[in-house]
Amino acid sequence: MPDQTNDRTQPDVNKIEDTRDQATFESIARPSDPASDALQETQGTAPSTGIGTHYDAIVLGGGMAGVPLAHRLVYKGFKTALIERAELGGTCLNRGCIPTKTMIASARVAHQAYLSEQWGVETGEVRVHLGRVVDRKDELVRSIRAGSERNVAQNKNLTLIRGNARFVGERRLVVNGEEISAERVFIAVGTRNRVPGIEGLEGVPFLDSTTAMELRVVPPHLVIVGGGHIGVEFAQMYRRFGSDVTVLQSAPYLLPSEDEDITTALREALEAEGIEVVARARARRVEGGEGQVRVTASVDGEDRIYPGTHLMIAAGRVPNTDGLGLEATGVGLDGHGFIRINDCLETTAPGIWALGDVRGGPMFTHTARDDARIIYQNVVKGQDLSIKDRVVPWGVFTDPQLGRVGLSEREARAAGFKLKIGTYEARKVAKARANGETRGLIKVVADASTDRILGAAVLMAEGAELVHEFVTAMQLGARYTDLQDMIHIHPTLAEGLNNALGGVHYEEGLE
Ligand SMILES: Cc1cc2nc3c(=O)[nH]c(=O)nc-3n(C[C@H](O)[C@H](O)[C@H](O)COP(=O)(O)OP(=O)(O)OC[C@H]3O[C@@H](n4cnc5c(N)ncnc54)[C@H](O)[C@@H]3O)c2cc1C
Ligand SMILES: NC(=O)c1ccc[n+]([C@@H]2O[C@H](COP(=O)([O-])OP(=O)(O)OC[C@H]3O[C@@H](n4cnc5c(N)ncnc54)[C@H](O)[C@@H]3O)[C@@H](O)[C@H]2O)c1
Fold it and tell me: Could you tell me the distance, in angstroms and rounded to a whole number, from the CA of residue 190 to the centre of ligand 1?
């Protein structure tokens, strides 16, 4: 464990209890609290070094991990600098969660309009104006970002430094040519799209998850390399905007860390909308130019060619640790460049923490924000919270949506659990039938020896909302039997969860 003796110099932070949490984008960047302003004026601890400003804390990266942490530290009286080289809000707000989900909402409207006759409604010809879809997305992002920027600006004890930062020593950084230092440094620099080593890629125009949200004309045929979270969400979105879509996925399944029954059900839903999914297809060469691309993929050892008009690469993310000068510190990296941390998010260098995507592991906004909570509680409140054993949910925003929490069946078996499992098909849920949204599968995995819920998958309309029933249960350490008799409103999609719980039974592993 890194040395934490720096904590001796902390301000007396226990005088003001900040119990509010960062539940929404508006609230992650809260206006300054006058009471804590006063506290800080009297309790700043950073000594001057004579080489530039010295802070109690430097937060490096103004994304979903960094901004909430910086606000919290300031509220507790830390003289804090937040360094951001691009826009506040980071990937999630500017290039990730919010813009994708805004455009996916437009795609959903188009889809329902195309199929409206199924509900007995005639709409006439449906036309997607992608430029207007993109404008709507840009406007929402702009307005949320403006709120975040306003709140940072109003927090007069938070110093926002716009620039690219680089370490020049332990807890010493250079930004905009000026050296600054701190008692504690929190690295939250996030990740960027990975460009895989595919022959010819440097000479062929290609889209990534950022540029694919800037197109103003619907691509006639989009070939997507990668069938992970980004690949599946964009595949369905563009199919619904009117593109032909081919997904080339090197793994045997889409979303390969999910159980086979779940990912197969998702694949069937995507294929039913006309998306071509090719599994075990490793893209190895690309050729072409504007409006015409050809991808050569090795499929089960045989080369096959997939032509299209546009190419999108969705083959994972790489951490923004290169060029950060970490060699001037004791901060260790793993083999992929992610920062090595212990369960308390401490790096291998004393007084330096890492949070959010850059620490590897689950890369979600809610885990980034929870990292900020854990660090804050440990560093400021002297607690000993850990990321180990926290209940982590996530969503994949296809239709049906996948809401997930905890272990999959495969992971639970690999961990040595004997399992009780319950499944229920969405098509049997009355409300799903009434809504005409019958694709999907619900699955609950419990420890056969204790009946405690180990994980769940809700692949269903609103699955990412519905899975929170299991998140709550797991957080409270509930048994599946505790939920079985819980009354669910009729008719709702949530009744399906109850049915899955009702069918939980002991299941031998396949091996
Ligand atoms: C297309 C897409 C869709 C996504 N959808 C979802 C979703 O629906 N739900 C979900 O939970 N997650 C989603 N994610 C993941 C989510 O965006 C990330 O988990 C989250 O943004 C991580 O936050 P972070 O603060 O760790 O990093 P970021 O948000 O990436 O923030 C890091 C910040 O650090 C800055 N920075 C980097 N290097 C430096 C430097 N040297 N000096 C100064 N500043 C620097 C960057 O400019 C950036 O603003 C999605 C991601 C993508 C790409
Ligand atoms: N809804 C969400 O929460 C959400 C949405 C989007 C992104 N994200 C985050 O962003 C991360 C990155 O997403 P992603 O989809 O880029 O990465 P990913 O790692 O989830 O998936 C990439 C896929 O690309 C495939 N691949 C790699 N090289 C290939 C090649 N040459 N040919 C064919 N297939 C190839 C891999 O098999 C892999 O399954 C996610 O892990 C997630 O943390 C989250």
Answer: 5
